[in-house]
Every structure is written in structure tokens, then in C-alpha cells.
Design a protein that fits this description.
With about 210 residues, the protein is of the alpha/beta class. It has a single domain, classed as Cytidine Deaminase, domain 2. The chain has seven helices and five strands, in the order αββαβαβαβααα. Helix 3 links the parallel strand 3 and strand 4. Helix 3 runs parallel beside helix 4 and helix 4 crosses helix 6. It starts with 5 loop residues before the first helix and ends in a 5-residue tail after the last helix.
Length: about 210
């Protein structure tokens, strides 16, 4: 597997709210690890957007092409620089329904257009499915750094300080995702109450009780 450079990891998994000068595009990047339940050597790789195919779709196609044994269970962990868009979220949910012998976990460094309702629906679709999306924290950043980055050339930054910085920034992003999840819970509760209020009037409920 071709490894990421330390610079690529630092720039693309950067989870600051805004990019400092000199500005650069934060691209979609997906690192995956597939581990058979029988203890065999994990398979690792990383993918990025290519032409009209998002990294998530390329990941799905990659897994499909492996010819995995459907009688065996696999643990699959993905580290993404951006959370999936609504279209990719639906594709991932449909994919795991067919490949139910895979236990897929998704961790994102940043939330993609999280303030837009349509993109929030994509996140909620994943969170309510068998493919929950979570925000990367120190354990995930550390695992990604150790297993997907080339360490032969010393980085221009202190890795420990970089990982601590990423973890610190991730706390606000985790709270953001929790607020999105809670908004869905509130909507469900309000809709349930509205349904009760709009339900058929029973004789007991129509009785006037004066005080």
C-alpha cells in the first residue's frame, strides 16, 4: 500500500474551522482498514475523489471487487477527511444491507456542509443505520497516523503536538454532530405529539371539564 506523506496527513486531516494562509483546498480522502475476524493480516488502503466518483463510492467498488468470503465476518474502519455527502450516505447504507457480514465504522475529521438540512439528513441516515458516523478523536487520529502515514522522512512538525491539536479541535465538531442528532430527536417527539393532537376525538376527550 502506498502510504500518505506526513504533509498530506497534516493538511488534509486538519480539522480547524478555517484554513490559515497559505490557503489550500481540503480534499476528500478515505483511509480504510479491513480486518478478517479470523485474525488474518488486515488490508489497508486510501482513496480520494476521482473524476465523478467520490472516495466513498470508490471504496464500495473496491470492497465489492475483493471477492470476500460471505461466510466470514470482517471489521472495516474508515477514516475520512470529510463526512459523506447525502448521496454517498445512501449508497453506504444500501451497500451494508447487502454485505451484512461487514461491520463498518466511519470516522470523519470534519463535517461536510453540516449547516445545510439536506446534508444533516445524510448524517442522520447514517447515524440511524448500521453505518454510524462518528467524529475522529485522539485514538482515531493516532491510528490513522501510525498505519497510513510514511514515517521514513521526519515530518516538519511535532507529531504528538499535531495529534493533540486535532483532538482538541475535534471536541467542538463532536458537539456539533450531537446537536444534529438531538435535533432529529426533538423533531420526532414534536411530530409524535402533533399526531396525538390531530388524532380522532374520543367521547372522553370531548367532555367539557370546567374548573
Amino acid at each position: 500500500m502506498a502510504l500518505l506523506t506526513a504533509k498530506t496527513f497534516s493538511l488534509q486531516f486538519n480539522n480547524k474551522r478555517h484554513v490559515n494562509k497559505p490557503y489550500y483546498p481540503r480534499k476528500a480522502l478515505l483511509c480504510y482498514q479491513l480486518t478478517p475476524q479470523n485474525g488474518s493480516t488486515p488490508t489497508r488502503g486510501h482513496l480520494k475523489n476521482k473524476k465523478k466518483h467520490h472516495a466513498e463510492i470508490r471504496f464500495i467498488n473496491k470492497i465489492k471487487s475483493m471477492g470476500l468470503d460471505k461466510t466470514q465476518c470482517y471489521q472495516v474502519t474508515c477514516y475520512l477527511t470529510w463526512s459523506p455527502c447525502p448521496s454517498c450516505a445512501r449508497e453506504l447504507v444500501d451497500f451494508i444491507k447487502t454485505y451484512d457480514h461487514l461491520n463498518l465504522r466511519i470516522f470523519a475529521s470534519r463535517l461536510y456542509y453540516h449547516w445545510r438540512p439536506h446534508y444533516q439528513e445524510g448524517l442522520l441516515l447514517l447515524c440511524g443505520s448500521q453505518v454510524p458516523v462518528e467524529v475522529m478523536g485522539l485514538p482515531e487520529f493516532t491510528d490513522c497516523w501510525e498505519n497510513f502515514v510514511d514515517h521514513e522522512e521526519p515530518p516538519s512538525f511535532n507529531p504528538s503536538e499535531k495529534l493533540e491539536e486535532l483532538d482538541k479541535n475535534s471536541r467542538a465538531i463532536k458537539r456539533r454532530l450531537e446537536r444534529i442528532k438531538q435535533s432529529r430527536s426533538v423533531d420526532v417527539l414534536e411530530n409524535g405529539l402533533r399526531s396525538l393532537q390531530l388524532g380522532p376525538v374520543t367521547p372522553s376527550s370531548s367532555t367539557h371539564n370546567s374548573r
